[in-house]
Write a structure and sequence with these properties.
This protein is of the alpha/beta class and 491 residues long. It is built from 15 helices and 22 strands. Belongs to the aldehyde dehydrogenase family.
Length: 491
């Protein structure tokens, strides 16, 4: 590792993949660079794996499945609970690794690590609640029973924006259900996933139950096809863009593989005239600027009642002024870098497009004058539906405001997209809250809050924002099949 970070336990930072309980290089010996997005400096090199490496990982996972799935739920619970405990105990080191490769402020990184642990703890306990049922029979001396069984080897592909939490949100329910897993983390953030594997190993999760393969972007399609075409893999869980999710789902159709897809969002953030503006502004800052706007549930379209628009803008300018941009390791920083140069260029394109189409720039709107992938927190008004930022995820620290004057107009704008992951609404009118929250076409609705993600509630989208749910009891069901047994008894 060329860029060092002080860890209490240096052994958590690994530059080998984890397959079959072994720390290995790619068969080819190839590696790829992992860089710090705040400085551009090299952190280290990870194995650049290919199809042959993934096939080996699938074999290892398949070999481990029999013993792991035969364990009782309580027997699987124990090592998972210990994994959760170790994640919490090593939260400071995991957060440092996360900030080093992903860039988010260290305090945010630690919160993510604890969030990651919460999924492991939740699903360790949920394993004991995968109930079947006895169905009243329609014939004498016949019993109908429905039971749940693990789907087999599961594949996971995770993004870079929450490199710890997205690993455990997939791996924990899979392992709790009795599945084994082959997981490929994003090329920008392999070390967080590998650090979690160190702790899983220490927790007593058996060899081959959790396998992590790493690769740079050029190998992504080859690895995806290897996972989706394998008859040994019973399920694919993917978090990423809608375009890639569609391709993976199409590939899975050849083997009728089960899929969970948590895809893109274009979330509306709605402020009604009767909203508590202090709550709305603080929620907007949290939901939009957390992780520099790089979350799938970050609000992308701000729809503000025309009667409170100017006051909302005034308060938002003041709130943005309190943000502190910088390297995530710097004290007091609340806004880190974007993940890559490509990400910065996309944000620049969205801002330029909006301005060319008549938007007004109030704050920011350009790169920060410093080394790294930094973009200033930005506020614009006069956003219209045809602008790029209204149609695509910006995935950056840019707020674009539009106004509405009626509820019908609002709902038409809010629902006028093929994506439906999250929505936010702010009002003190109980009837309006009831009416609007149900009319919004999104899998998740935040009412008077910007903090909507939790391990105990189902997470997923409507329309082209995905298939299936993560978290909650639904999250473990995604990794199980229902088997019906018809038992006839003589007599």
């Amino acid at each position: 590792m060329k860029e060092k970070v002080k860890l209490l336990d240096d052994s958590l930072l690994r530059d080998r993949a984890y397959v079959g309980g072994e720390w290995i290089q790619a068969v080819s010996g190839a590696t790829f660079d992992v860089v710090n997005p705040a400085t551009g400096e090299l952190i280290g090199k990870a194995p650049h794996m290919a199809a042959v490496d993934v096939e080996h990982a699938i074999i290892q996972a398949e070999a481990a499945f029999g013993e792991w799935s035969a364990r009782t739920a309580k027997e699987r619970e124990a090592p998972l609970k210990e994994w959760a405990r170790l994640i919490v105990a090593n939260a400071s080191d995991l957060a440092a690794i996360l900030t080093l490769e992903q860039g988010k402020p260290l305090s945010d990184a630690k919160n993510e690590v604890l969030f990651a642990a919460s999924f492991v703890e939740w699903f360790a306990e949920e394993a004991k609640r995968t109930y079947g049922e006895v169905i009243p029979g329609s014939r004498r001396n016949v019993t109908y029973v429905a039971i749940k069984e693990p789907v087999g080897v599961a594949a996971g592909i995770t993004p870079w924006n929450l490199p710890c939490a997205m690993v455990t949100r997939k791996a924990a329910p899979a392992l709790a259900a009795g599945c084994t897993m082959v997981l490929k983390p994003a090329e920008h953030t392999p070390f967080s996933a590998l650090a979690l594997c160190v702790l899983a190993e220490r927790a007593g999760i058996p060899r081959g139950v959790l396998n992590v393969v790493t690769a740079d972007r050029p190998a992504a399609e080859e690895i995806g096809r290897t996972l989706t075409s394998s008859h040994a893999v019973g399920k694919l869980s993917f978090t990423g863009s809608t375009a890639v999710g569609k391709r993976l789902a199409a590939q899975c159709a050849d083997t009728m593989k089960r899929v969970s897809l948590e895809l893109g969002g274009n979330s509306p953030f709605i402020v009604f005239a009767d909203a508590d503006l202090d709550v709305a502004v603080s929620s907007a800052v949290f939901a939009k600027f957390r992780n520099a706007g790089q979350t799938c549930i970050a609000p992308n379209r701000f729809l503000i009642d025309a009667s409170v628009h100017d006051e909302f803008v005034k308060r938002m300018i003041a709130a943005i002024g309190e943000l502190s941009l910088g390297d995530g390791f710097e004290p007091g920083v609340t806004l880190g870098p974007l993940i890559s140069e490509d990400a910065v260029q996309k944000v620049e394109r969205h801002v330029a497009d909006a301005l060319a189409r008549g938007a007004k720039l109030l704050v920011g709107g350009k790169r920060a004058d410093r080394k790294g992938n930094f973009f200033l927190p930005t506020l614009m008004t006069g956003i219209s539906p045809e602008m790029a930022m209204s149609c695509e995820e910006t995935f950056g620290p840019v707020m674009g405001l539009a106004t509405f004057t009626s509820e019908d107009e609002l709902l038409q704008r809010a629902n006028g997209t093929r994506l439906g992951l999250a929505s936010y609404m702010f009002s003190r009118d109980a009837a309006r809250i009831h009416r609007t929250s149900r009319a919004l076409q999104a899998g998740i609705v935040g009412v008077n809050t910007g903090a909507i993600a939790t391990e105990v509630a189902p997470f997923g989208g409507f329309k082209e924002s995905g298939i299936g749910r993560e978290g909650a009891r639904q999250g473990i069901d995604e990794f199980m099949e229902t088997k019906f047994i018809c038992e006839a008894f003589p007599g």
